[in-house]
């Protein structure tokens, strides 16, 4: 896993994901993933999330305290764990 940044202080990171396998064909994975990010949002960790129109990519902007927290969020994403999505880019800001 390549770290998005060397930040040690709180910061935001925009994560871009691309489908490896169709989310539409993995309904339970989609339900699990939506619940995962809803929980993170209720804890103030997700700023916004969405999809790019008519593409197999989506994004999530997270607020993290450091890169270790970022790695945990990514590694615990149900779609990453089940090889349905892959992280294609992480942009800290």
TrEMBL record:
InterPro entries, sorted: Dimeric_a/b-barrel, YCII
Superkingdom per UniProt: Bacteria
Residue ranges of every copy of the YCII-related domain listed in the record: 24-93
UniProt cross-references to Pfam families, sorted A to Z: YCII (PF03795)
Family stated for the protein in its record: Belongs to the YciI family.
Name of the protein in question: YCII-related domain-containing protein
Organism in which the protein naturally occurs: Mucilaginibacter rubeus
